[in-house]
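sry for the spam today, last one i promise. struct tokens for design, 306 residues
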């Protein structure tokens, strides 16, 4: 079975699921939850507290464990349960890191023999027989590729958890000679907002508070806290655009496609900026995973399941 996973610094996404890239390890089976994954003699649960940023996610087993959660969720949703399940993985990396890390990333997921784990008290046995690695950002616009194939130049800007990745498309084809990665994602913004709110208002907030304010959801936060969050977000959006201009990414003379969960949060500020002349937004945070699946099916010559 083909399973696509987008390993974000803030969230893990598959075509059908999204969950925070947070993990808790237990030596004994924890109570109060049924979403427990047992692997390697340990028990694992998902956590709302994301892992610290790792440029190279192959440093330890945690992103592999998160991948097992993603695989289990997709297998459970498909209803295709059996005692031995062959899996092909489609994953991705930021364009700037793609050439350097793609082989290591693919090898990270390849394990000898069967991988056995228990998810929600149900045993699974899978074999990962192939791993395909694709560039992020480019993958996310594959479903909309017909809209950019005749555009001479368009920049794809992926505002993610820790990084903002930008890729140049020429007539719909990625120019991997021009791809950049900036450490200006939503995690860096949230860290600054938490610091600023603490310093100015002597109040402790977390990512969920910030996301709720930016999405217009109901909160009990005082209005001055909300104003601080919005003004800091506006500054962060401007900082991203300023840094892109320093890299010769001028969005006044070139159209842009914004993708990633960060783009959705920053959309009002990006659209209002005089530094952006023409922008389209891919609303789905699962867009990279959907694109990985489409690219992998083409590579494997598989027909979509219907």
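last one done:
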């Amino acid at each position: 079975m083909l399973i696509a996973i987008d390993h974000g610094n803030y969230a893990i996404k598959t075509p059908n699921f999204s969950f925070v890239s947070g993990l808790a390890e237990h030596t004994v089976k924890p109570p109060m939850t049924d979403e427990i994954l047992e692997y390697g003699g340990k028990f694992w649960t998902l956590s709302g507290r994301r892992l610290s940023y790792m440029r190279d996610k192959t440093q330890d087993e945690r992103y592999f464990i998160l991948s097992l959660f993603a695989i289990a969720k997709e297998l459970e949703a498909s209803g295709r349960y059996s005692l031995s399940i062959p899996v092909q993985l489609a994953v991705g990396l930021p364009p700037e890191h793609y050439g350097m890390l793609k082989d290591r990333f693919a090898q990270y997921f390849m394990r000898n023999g069967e991988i056995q784990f228990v998810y929600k008290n149900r045993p699974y046995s899978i074999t990962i027989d192939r791993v395909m690695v694709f560039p992020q950002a480019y993958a996310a616009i594959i479903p909309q590729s017909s809209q950019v194939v005749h555009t001479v130049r368009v920049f794809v800007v992926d505002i993610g958890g820790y990084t903002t990745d930008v890729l140049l498309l020429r007539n719909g084809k990625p120019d991997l000679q021009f791809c950049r990665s900036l450490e200006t994602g939503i995690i860096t913004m949230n860290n600054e907002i938490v610091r600023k709110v603490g310093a100015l208002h002597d109040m402790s907030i977390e990512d969920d508070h910030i996301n709720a304010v930016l999405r217009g959801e109901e909160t009990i936060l005082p209005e001055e806290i909300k104003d601080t969050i919005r003004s800091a977000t506006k500054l962060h959006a401007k900082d991203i655009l300023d840094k892109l201009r320093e890299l010769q990414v001028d969005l006044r003379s070139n159209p842009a496609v914004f993708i990633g969960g960060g783009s959705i949060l920053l959309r009002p500020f990006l659209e209002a900026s005089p530094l952006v002349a023409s922008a389209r937004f891919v609303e789905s945070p699962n867009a990279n995973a959907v694109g990985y699946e489409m690219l992998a099916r083409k590579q494997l010559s598989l027909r979509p399941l219907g």
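DSSP finds seven helices and 15 strands in the chain. ok im logging off now
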